[in-house]
Each structure stands twice: as C-alpha cells, then as structure tokens.
Design goal:
Elements: E1 5-7, H1 17-23, E2 26-32, E3 35-41, E4 45-49, E5 52-59, H2 64-71, E6 74-79, H3 85-93, E7 109-111, E8 117-119, E9 124-135, H4 144-148, E10 156-168
Antiparallel strand pairs: 1-10, 2-3, 2-6, 4-5, 5-10, 6-9, 7-8, 9-10
Length: 169
C-alpha cells in the first residue's frame, strides 16, 4: 500500500459517514504548524450545503481546541486506520492545556497551502475553510433527554467547506 496522500474529489468518496465519524473517530485539528491543537471527535456530519461540499464539526468552548478554531480560518479532519485507535483515545482523553499531545505518539503533523495542520499517517484528510458557525441553543432541543446530557456544556457547530480532500491509495 502506498503511504502517500493523494487529492481526491470528496463527491467520489465511498466512505460510510456513520462508520467514518461515529465508529472510527477523527482528529479535528486547528492552528498552524508551530502552534496547533488536535482533539478526537465522534460527532460530525458530511454533505452538501449551499452548493458546496461541507463538513460539520462540533466543539465545546471548554475544549482547548476551541480557541484554535476561533482564531484560524481553516481546520482539518483526519481519519485513521484501526491501528491508530490508542492514539485517538489519548488525543481524546488528554488536554493540550496540560500535556504536549504530539510528544511521543507517532503522528507527523504537516500543513498545506492554507496553513491547516493534518497528519501524514491519516488514511483520509479533509481540509476545511470555516464558512459558518452557530452555538447549540438548549432552548431549541425538541428531545429533553438530549439537553439533560450536556450539563450546560454545549457545543459550537462549525460548518467548513471542504477545500481539499486527500486519501491514501
């Protein structure tokens, strides 16, 4: 198998988004190569909006990655093979405020022309440009059980236009 990432049209992906995001997980990364943070996520959406390929991601303001998302116009979603599961667990359980997540975990951060950071070990990468955000409003929950799970720690939803999609062959 070739370890190089190649550009691909996101409309040609055959991935199941429920498995890709909800079961396989992803790293959301924002910032620039010399100052970024990444976090594991299993919430997200892929699709078409405003005649653009888009990726939605959700980040709580209490997460360290939030400040990087707010400061920068681009972010990446990196998807990995199962052998990286322990790394994804670490990136989802430790805060970049407290530790250097990249130290000794075996991922190589790289960036593209937009400045977005992603990882060369990923099997699929989506570079996104933020085009919209909205805070989750608890008043809009139609299912009160969902609201009771948040403990007043609601996500901000970011919609990013997928400006580049890379995949290993």
């Amino acid at each position: 198998m070739n370890d190089k990432l190649y550009p691909v049209d996101p409309s040609l992906l055959e991935e199941n988004p429920f498995k890709l995001i909800g079961l396989d997980w992803m790293l959301i990364t924002a910032g620039v190569l010399d100052n970024f943070n990444t976090m594991t996520a299993s919430y997200g959406t892929l699709g078409e909006l405003w005649h653009r390929p888009v990726a939605y991601c959700y980040i709580r303001p209490t997460r360290h990655t939030y400040q990087f998302m707010e400061k920068h116009n681009h972010y990446s979603l990196s998807f990995f093979d199962e052998k990286y599961r322990d790394i994804l667990k670490r990136c989802g359980s430790k805060s970049g405020r407290d530790i250097d997540k990249m130290k000794g975990i075996g991922l190589t951060p790289v960036s593209d022309d937009s400045g977005a950071v992603y990882f060369s070990e990923a099997r699929l990468v989506m570079i996104c440009r933020k085009i919209y955000y909205q805070d989750i409003d608890p008043a809009n929950f139609l299912d009160s059980k969902i609201d009771s799970e948040y403990n007043n720690d609601y996500h901000r939803s970011y919609i990013g236009q997928i400006i580049r999609c890379l995949m290993k062959k």
